[in-house]
Structure formats: structure tokens, C-alpha cells
Amino acid sequence: MPIQNVVVAGGGVLGSQIAYQTALHDFKVTLYDLSSESLQQAQERIKVLFPDYHHDLGLSQADFDRHLANLSYTTGLETAVADADLVIEAIPEKLTIKEAFYQQLSKLAPEKTIFASNSSSLLPSQLVGYTDRPDRYLHLHFANHIWSRNTAEVMGTKDTDPKIFAEIVNFASAIGMIPVPLHKEQPGYVLNAMLIPWLNSALILWAKGVTDPLTIDRTWMKDLEAPVGPFGILDIIGLRTHYNIVKNMADKTDNADLQLAAAKMKERIDANKLGPSTGEGFYHWPNPAFLSPDFLK
Ligand code: NAD
Hints:
Helix 9 (191-207) crosses helix 11, helix 11 packs across helix 12 and helix 12 packs antiparallel against helix 13. By secondary structure, the protein is of the alpha/beta class. 48% of the residues lie in helices and 13% in strands. Strands 3-2-1-4-5-6-7-8 form an 8-stranded mixed β-sheet. Residues 9-15, 32-34, 38, 90-93, 97, 101, 118-120, 142, 144 line the site of nicotinamide-adenine-dinucleotide.
């Protein structure tokens, strides 16, 4: 039986987007969260997705609303999963929380249910041991703004059944994603495995005093004909988010260059230069210099 009934666990930033995107493609979706307040917030988050779906995909209000009928909301995991073909887990990125969730889910879900985690930084092999079904466990990783940044990275463990892996790749296509299958476990999946070292290389050039951020961006943009450089991207991601990654890596690896990069970022963060959210990061927002036609002259 192909996948029909989908449960999304956790209706936060990503869970609410995953739930609506799946409902839009005519799957029956149950959104499960811990409290009625969280579910209320999830419903609000979904409602305010309309302008983006309209702007980016041309969806009309009537179409948007019609697909809301494919969604239901519950705080009861047992009833939510009673006939679930797939559970997509989007609960907080904390091992202890996910551990307790998978242990409970394993007791309640029928044998047929596939478990897929949207975890950004944990590997499937770190979580699979908390489930009762290694062959039906894998990761399905979406990006924030799922409707337009519509890649879905699919990564299993050595124990994931290849048929289940293929089924999830097909499911990703069926909900409007471009599937990105990974055939080995890889921290950061495909995108972050490339993006994070690239951003860190740029930060280290700056932190060591080799040259300034705008010169680094100009060099990248000019010579690769790219629309944005690493410091433009760092602003868009938000300095705090990337700082946490760099600091964590620096502490784990004792890498002096990364420590230096983290310290330089911290100075900016302490000065409230966080990116577009505070009007300034490495650039001034909403009109950053790299968008100006003169930037590369
Ligand atoms: P969030 O904090 O916005 O939302 C988490 C939701 O889970 C909340 O609604 C919370 O009430 C609920 N929750 C907490 N414990 C729960 C439990 N035991 N059972 C059910 N619901 C529970 O988090 P988020 O940013 O949406 O991230 C969720 C997951 O998605 C994480 O694993 C994260 O790594 C991943 N992710 C996040 C992004 C992003 O840009 N935010 C991008 C890709 C992947």
C-alpha cells in the first residue's frame, strides 16, 4: 500500500510547513503536538504561510484553504498513529527529547509505519536504537521555506530497507520536493557538508586579518559569477545561528582558527549585528551593498 496517512510530530517552524506542504499534495495529515496551545500556534503558523504560497507558487486563497481540510490536529499520539503509514518527526533537536519520543512511538505505532526524522544535526544511527524498527527508520530533511527551497535530503542507516528508502524518495517527489538521496550517513547531509566548511573558510580569512569581509565576498562573486558571497549568506542565515555551529566545532576540535573566527563573530553578536533581523550584520539591511550594481566595480 502506498503512503496515504501521514503524521507530523511537532508543529513548530518546520513541522507546520511539512504538514501543510504534505496536505497540499492531498495526503491526509495529522499534526501531533504536546498541548492544545502548541497546536493552536501551529494552526496560526500554517495560516500565515498563505502569502508565501501565493507569492512563490501562485496558489489562490481558495486553493490554499481547500487543502487545509486535509489536516487534523491532536495531542493524542496513540490515536494519531493508529493507521499511520508514515510519521515525520519534527520535534526539538535534543537527543533526550527524541529518544523519549521514539521509545513511546515504537510502542504505539502499527508495524507498517515508517519513521522519518527531520533532524538537522543528528545522524540516523544516533536515533535508530530508540526505535523498534531499524529497517523502517531513516531521515527526511527539509529546508526552512519548504515550498520554495524544496529539496528533501533522504538518508538512512545500513539497516534501512532499500525498498523503504525508495518509497520515501518517491514520497518526497509526491509532495513537491526534489529528493536528494544520500547513500551513506553524512553529518550535515549534502548541503551543510559543503556550506559550513565554506562559510568557515571565509570567516577564518577575515578573523586572521588576511582581508575584510566585503573583499572576500567580491572575490567570490566576481570570479565565480555568483550572486552572493559567504558573508552575505552569513547575514541571511543570521550570525547567531552560525556562531553556535562554529563555537561548537571549535570547542570539539580545539581548532585555533575556528576559535578565532568564533571570537570575531561574538564581537559582532554582542554589538547586536545579527543580520537582517537587527538591520545590520556584515551588511546593512534591507539594502545590502552586494546587491548594488556598483559592488563589483
Ligand atoms: P521548533 O522548536 O520550532 O518546534 C518544535 C515543536 O515540537 C514545538 O511545537 C513543540 O511543542 C513540539 N514538541 C516538543 N516536544 C515534543 C514531543 N515530545 N512530541 C511532540 N511534539 C513536541 O523546532 P523546529 O525548528 O521546527 O525544528 C524541529 C526539527 O526540525 C529539529 O530536529 C530541527 O533540527 C529540524 N529542522 C529545523 C529547521 C529550521 O530551520 N528550523 C530546518 C531543518 C530541520
